[in-house]
């Protein structure tokens, strides 16, 4: 049965390499996990295995991608900001999300869940836009992005902490919530001290002539 398990994993990777037309590491990881989980669920002893759900796998993929983004933007803050408080927050992101990423890798490995090895294509575009900004213009964009990202992260981690089917993944999500709340509180206070306003909402074209 153990050989069947590894055969399913090998088959999932093979099918992805043949059929995937995207270079987006996050999407690739999601496809590998979906194929692997589908294969494992077809094994004769599937009911006796602790097979993660696709939702749990997607959560770990999102968390890994988001964590890498936080680290890379934190590193960017060291070069593009001239504000020591912004640099300090960026350094906090590098340290906390870097350490969290290592724990996430170990958890994913224990569950045979594939993680992306780089940020997604959309995240890369956001990063490139931010790279073009310097000084206070960078600070405004970076701080607003960090506020929005951490609000989203808290929502996703709380959902996983409440509804994840795997107990270890559920515990991982719950354990990281205090850190995320601390980050959000810190960046919101920094935003207030610097007098930074919310970014204006984009003007949307009405769906009529």
Can I get a quick summary?
The chain is mainly alpha-helical and 209 residues long. It is built from 7 helices and no strands. The chain has helices at 2-19, 25-40, 54-80, 84-110, 121-131, 135-163, 167-193.
Average pLDDT for all residues: 87
Number of E strands: 0
Helical amount: over 70%
For the report, how would you describe the main beta sheet?
none
User: Treating each run of at least 4 consecutive H or I residues as one helix, how many helices?
Assistant: 7
Overview of the structural elements:
- This protein is mainly α and 209 residues long.
- It is 74% helix and 0% strand.
- It has 7 helices and no strands.
- It has helices spanning 2-19, 25-40, 54-80, 84-110, 121-131, 135-163, 167-193.
- Helix 3 runs parallel beside helix 5, helix 4 (84-110) packs antiparallel against helix 7 and helix 6 packs antiparallel against helix 7 (167-193).
- The longest helix is centred in the last third of the chain and has 29 residues, at 135-163.
- The radius of gyration is 20 Å and the shape is elongated.
Main traits of this protein?
209 residues, mainly alpha, 7 helices, elongated, disordered N terminus, disordered C terminus
Write the layout of secondary structure elements.
Blueprint: H1 2-19, H2 25-40, H3 54-80, H4 84-110, H5 121-131, H6 135-163, H7 167-193
């Amino acid at each position: 049965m153990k050989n069947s398990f590894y055969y399913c994993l090998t088959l999932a990777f093979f099918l992805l390499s043949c059929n995937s037309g995207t270079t987006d590491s996050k999407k690739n990881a999601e496809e590998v996990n979906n194929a692997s989980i589908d294969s494992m669920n077809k094994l004769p002893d599937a009911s006796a295995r602790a097979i993660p759900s696709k939702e749990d796998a997607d959560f770990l993929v999102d968390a890994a991608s988001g964590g890498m983004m936080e680290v890379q933007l934190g590193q960017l803050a060291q070069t593009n900001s001239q504000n020591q408080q912004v640099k300090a927050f960026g350094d906090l992101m590098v340290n906390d999300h870097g350490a969290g990423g290592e724990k996430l890798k170990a958890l994913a490995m224990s569950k045979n869940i594939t993680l992306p090895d780089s940020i997604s294509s959309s995240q890369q575009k956001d990063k490139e836009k931010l790279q073009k900004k310097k000084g206070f213009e960078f600070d405004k964009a970076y701080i607003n992005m960090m506020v929005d990202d951490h609000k989203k992260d808290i929502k996703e981690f709380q959902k996983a902490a409440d509804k994840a089917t795997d107990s270890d993944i559920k515990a991982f999500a719950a354990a990281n919530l205090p850190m995320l709340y601390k980050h959000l509180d810190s960046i919101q206070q920094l935003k207030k001290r610097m007098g930074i306003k919310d970014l204006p909402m984009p003007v949307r074209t009405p769906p009529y002539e």
